[in-house]
Each structure stands twice: as C-alpha cells, then as structure tokens.
Amino acid sequence: MFDDLHDLYQQMILDHSRSPRNFRKMEGANRRADGRNPLCGDQITLYLFMEGDVVKDISFQGSGCAISKASASLLTDALKGKSRQEVKRLFDQVHELVTTGKTGGDDVGKLAVFAGVHKFPARVKCAILPWHALIAAIEGKVEPVSTE
Amino acid sequence: MSLASPIQEPKKSAIDWRSLRDDFPALHQIVHGHPLIYFDNAATTQKPRFVIEALRSFYERDNANVHRGVHELSNRASAAYEAARARAAQFIRAKSADEIVFTRGTTEAINLVAQSWGPKNLRPGDRILLTEMEHHSNIVPWQLLAERVGAQLIFLPISDDKGLLDLNRLDEWLTPQVKILAITHISNSLGTVNPVAELCRRARRIGAVTLIDAAQSAGHCPLDVQEIGCDFLAFSGHKMCGPTGIGVLYGRHELLEAMPPYQGGGDMISTVDFHRSTWNRVPHKFEAGTPHISGAVGLHAAMDYLDRIGRKNIAQRDHELAAYAYERLSRLSGLRLFGPHVGRAGLVSFLAADVHAHDLVTVADQRGIALRGGHHCNQPLMKQLGVEATARASFYFYNLEEEIDRFVDALREIQKFFSR
Ligand SMILES: Cc1ncc(COP(=O)(O)O)c(C=O)c1O
C-alpha cells in the first residue's frame, strides 16, 4: 500500500520526525533564526554556536510536518564541525536533491533520504525550510525567514 | 428553512445527486491511479458544463467591451453584463440591481468596504467588531483600516470547543464605540453556521453597520439580504460553480451612494477634466476599468444552475454529507474533530494523532482524495484552538456517501502508515 509514498516517507524520515535529534533550545547560542511556512503553519527556530567560521553546536525547536521536522533533525546531525563554506556547499546540494532528486556532490550522506521529495512539488518547501533558516542564521540575519 | 438558524435536521432528499455528477467534467478523472474524490470545495468548487458553455458562448458570439460601444456586440455584452447584475440582485433578494457591485471576489469586496466606507465613517477610538473565526480576508483589510484611522479591532469569542459564537456575551462586545460588525456566515474551517440575522439585528440596535462574509454560504443555502438585515454582503463566484475572478459586493443603496470611489479609471466616472472628475452613479462608481464581463456571464449561469437544483436542497444535501462524515469519523480512534456537533455546514475539520495535517493531505492525494491541510487562512483561530493546522474535507452536492467511505478507509490506512 502507498508504494510511491515510501519514497517520500522513508523510515529514517519517520524516525527523525518522531524523535528529532538536537531538539532543544541552546543557551549561549550566538546565531539564531526562525523559519516559517505560513501556508501550513510549520515553524522552527534554529540555534547555532559558531566559533569563527565553524559550526560548533547546532540545535532546533519548533513544530511542523514530518518532512520539515526530519529535515531539521538530520540537518543538525550533518552540520557539526562544518565551516561556513562547507555549509553553503551542502545547502546547494540539498537544494538540488529535493528539487531534482539528483545529488550534485557526495557530501549529502544520510540526507539522500530526501531525494523522494522532488516528486512532491508541494512538499519541497517543507524539506528546505530548515535550510533557509540555517543560511539566515549563518549570515546573521535576524528576521524570520519564510518559504512563501 | 430559516437562514438565520442552523440548518435543520435532514430528511433524505429526493434529488438524484449521483446523476448531477455528469454535469461536472472535472469530477471524472483518475488521480494517482484512483478515481478523483474532490473534497476541497470550500477552497473552490468544480464547474458544471452549463457554466463552461456560457463562457464559451460569450467569447464565441458576444465578446466586446461594455458600456462603451454602440455596435451590436457591445450592446450584447453590456446587456449580458447588466443581466448578470440583475440576476445577482435577485439571487440574494437585494431591492435593486444598483446594490450589486461586481468585484474580483469576497476579498476585494471586503477591501472595497474597508477602504471606501471605512475612513469616512471611523474615528480614532472607534471599534471594528469581528469574530474569532474570520478568514484572513475579513481580518486584514480591517487591520489596514484600523491602522489608518486609529480604530481598534475586537473579536467576538468562540464559546467552547464546539465552535459556536458566545452570543450570551454579545452585549459586552456591542458597545457604542462599535461602528461596524463584520462576520462570516459559515466558517470555512469549523463549519459553524452563524445566526447572522440575529447578529445584524443586535448590531443595528446600537447603530453599527454590518457586513456578512457569505463566501461559504452563497452557493450552499438561500440568501436573503433583507431578511438577514445586513448593510453589506460579499461572496465569490468560484465557490459556487462560477468562474474565478468574479464576485459580488452587495451594499444598501444609501450606503453605497455616500461612499467615495474605490479605484479610479474608466467607466467609474461621469465627466473628467484634467484636474477633477465627477463620479458615475452607483454601482458603476465602484467598477473602474474593463470589468470581468465573461466572469459575470459565467456567474449568471452558475446562479441559474444552482437555483435549478434549489439552494434549499443543496443545503440539506450538504448537511446530510457532513453529518454522515462526522458520524463515520467520530468512530475512528485517534481523531480529533473540530466544530459544532450538529447543524454544521458541509465540511469537517479534523486532526489525526501523530500525523501532521500536511502529511495526511499528501498521502490522501496519492489515493486521489483532494483535501486541504493547513490553517485555512484562519491563523488566529488555529492559535485559539491550540493547533498549527487541521485537515479539512469540504463537500458539495455532487459528493457521495461512498466517497466518504473511501476517504474513511484511506484515513485508517494513513494512520497505520505513519505508525509504522
Ligand atoms: C469564509 C471565507 N471568506 C472569504 C474567503 C475569500 O474568498 P476569495 O479568495 O474568493 O476572495 C474565503 C475563501 O477561502 C472564505 O472561505
């Protein structure tokens, strides 16, 4: 049943949406950004602790659909220790992944579970929401970012 | 049946609803390998062939601009456009066609009132009374106005989890500072049918002007602006079998007369010189530029189509479907249902435990079932209910009980899918 949907809702995505990693407010964060998807009410806050150019710690809080929550959770897992440059490169690759299903590079690792999202155009913004918040946080923007 | 009170308990209707489906080409298609079940009628309804043909015939034979040419086609187009206006007046029992302003839809109609009636009639400290169940299009235009004139927005609360307005406390809210009461007739996210005639009567006692958002009711039950006793009423063609981009603002004649124009341009003027102009008479004063002529023609056809079925019958059918869905859904475990238990309009909002509305709607779509998931343009209401979003199944007379059965089966599978 729902064969095509197993592509979208892979077991890893369901697991991360049910028990998200790094799901906490970070005291002492030096970067922060909110991501909002006004259409469905998804809302996440991303906390970063950066030392120079490097992401030392990252966490998030918020609520949303399985895709946006799992995306945020896997993102926090993937980014610790990465430099600003590396984060931006990864963002580009994830963006390509969720819009075309193809990976432009080999950095994506576990994030490849989001390849199925591209078959569901309406859900691309759910997967990409935490990434927009991430870029805003890294750039030091303070306003909430929105995917609409 | 009285408009003002919740729709009555159903008797089985005599109409062959199934055969009406043949009028709607879009209903007969396969989506993701399954026959389409269209349960997003509160967003927009499908269009009957009768309406599609009216549009086609207008463009194939009568197309011309209105009120400008003296040639035959322009005469025909003008006549068709004005006939639609007269029909709209009759449809909601307005006293005259001059009380009908064509707009792009409900949203534009409400903005027109807020921007044209508002600044002339509101002073700093005045209040605009809305309810907690308004659509964004009946909130934001008033926020813009309030900011402009220094007025204050207040919201009539929903009394309980059944999604009814707290009318016992209405007098606390209807203070002399309230200059306008703007309320939805039927809530697009709860399915509540508000007692609009009663609300208008109470508002009139304190001299407040009233506006009814009839977006969800115009195509679903008989409307009589005189019986409701409202000053303004707004609705959209596309939610009642008509085309997108056309809607109606009804305004009581003397109010429209006293209001300044909304936009400037052709058609809305009587004389123009370089520095000043004089306005055309109502309702043309409010219709600047070339209007949506074919839209009005299509809306006319939609009104004829609906009245051939009978709006009383449609209201009863809505109620049957909603009651059936509510009954079946309330027997599923792990489901939270929103809105009134009885007397609801033709929609059901719900949440499944542990499945976000957005995920639920994506999975249902793979079964060919079109639902809506999200805040339904009711963000403040969602906050009030303590949820981010709900899933919504909204029905129209062409939906069938067996579609609801398939939908309930799919919901069970969805719950299973997400608990794996
Ligand atoms: C209660 C209500 N009011 C207003 C609107 C706005 O209608 P439109 O988008 O056609 O202007 C809607 C449509 O979603 C609605 O459900």
What does this structure look like?
The complex is a heterodimer of chains A (148) and B (420). In chain A, 41% of the residues lie in helices and 20% in strands. Chain A is α+β, with helices and mostly antiparallel strands and 148 residues long. Chain A has one domain (2-142): Sufe protein. Chain: A, CATH 3.90.1010. Chain A is globular and about 45 Å long. Chain B has 420 residues and is an alpha/beta fold. Chain B has 2 domains: 17-47 and 310-415, Aspartate Aminotransferase, domain 1 (Alpha-Beta Complex), CATH 3.90.1150.10; 51-308, Type I PLP-dependent aspartate aminotransferase-like (Major domain) (Aspartate Aminotransferase, domain 2), CATH 3.40.640. Chain B has helices spanning 17-20, 49-62, 72-91, 106-121, 140-149, 170-173, 196-205, 225-228, 253-258, 293-309, 311-330, 357-365, 379-385, 401-418; strands spanning 30-31, 34-35, 37-38, 100-103, 127-131, 152-156, 178-184, 209-213, 232-236, 247-251, 269-272, 277-279, 335-338, 347-352, 369-370, 372-374, 390-394. In chain B, strands 4-10-9-8-7-5-6 form a 7-stranded mixed sheet, sandwiched between helices. Chain B has a 4-stranded antiparallel sheet with strand order 13-14-17-16, covered by helices on one side. In chain B, a hairpin with a 2-residue loop joins β1 (30-31) and β2 (34-35). In chain B, α3 packs across α10 and α4 (106-121) packs parallel to α5. The radius of gyration of chain B is 22 Å and the shape is globular. Chain B starts with 16 loop residues before the first helix and ends with a helix. The A-B interface holds A 1-2, 4-5, 8-9, 11, 14, 18, 38-43, 63-67, 120, 122-123, 126 and B 32, 354, 356-359, 362-363, 366, 373-375, 379, 382, 388-389, 413, 417-418, 420. The complex binds pyridoxal-5'-phosphate. The site of pyridoxal-5'-phosphate has 14 residues of chain B, from α4.
